[in-house]
Amino acid sequence: MEKLEDQIKELKERRNAVILAHNYERGEVQDIADFTGDSLELARKAATVDADVIVFCGVYFMAETAAILNPGKTVLIPDPTAGCPMADMITGAQLRELKAKHPGAAAVCYVNSTADVKAECDICVTSGNAEKVMSRFPKDREILFVPDQHLGSHIADKLGVKYVLWPGYCPTHARLTAKQIADARAAHHGATVMVHPECPREVRDAADQCLSTGGMCAYARNCAETEFIVGTELGILHRLQNENPSKTFHPAAQLTCPNMKKTTLDKVRDSLLNMETRVVVPEEIASRAKRAIDAMLAVS
Ligand code: 13P
Ligand code: SF4
Fold this sequence. Notes:
alpha/beta, binds iron/sulfur cluster, Rossmann fold, globular
């Protein structure tokens, strides 16, 4: 029996497919991917990729974004139950209600949202470009920021403004505490602490750097520091360690996103073999959601 990795390689060629993987995926899934990145890098890649089929190893909203950007391509997700609980904390109907209460306000969504919610928004942001995108709004403009209260408050603090924040959050990052950061600092004296903006405010305040997963990879690669405490999902340690073999990375806590871990090599193989599960977004929603994603890609 051929190795799983070889079966995937063969099927990939047969289908003229590319495999995209998020930085939180299992190490072995990142290793067979053509490209691994954060949500901004993956959206950019999905917009330009030259293939008939995209196998998206990540959570559903990411595959949905790839499908919206590529109406002519087949986008497959190896496990369609890999959702993002934060994305499901607001619906399109709830956002429409909020907009009705704030006429004239701009609606901004974190890409960790459903296509339905994106379709209601003026622009999207990712954690990698949120500051840049949001700095373009006049300071006195009313902004509805959904669904992540933590990314929203992080950017509002940085820009010295206030947003109407939806109370959504990431259950994985919400588990990280300032005490865990303090304990990790005590155990690894002098290490640089990097956390994700989805972390609660007291955790962000306790860190040295607050960065997207792609931002963490770039920072670790380019800085002179050699030891890091990493406050985000464990999957990123695989890439950080591979790209920086002479540097040391300690997890701030054992943070796992169960949905990111649903994708296995078997499921990637089966997905290419059976051409399942196709991610299809109804045209009416896709075209409106695409406007918000394109607006973001044009700025960043
Ligand atoms: P990044 O945009 O930093 O990859 O984050 C996506 C995500 O889901 C973090 O939980
Ligand atoms: Fe969603 Fe959090 Fe998982 Fe990211 S880590 S996909 S925000 S649940």
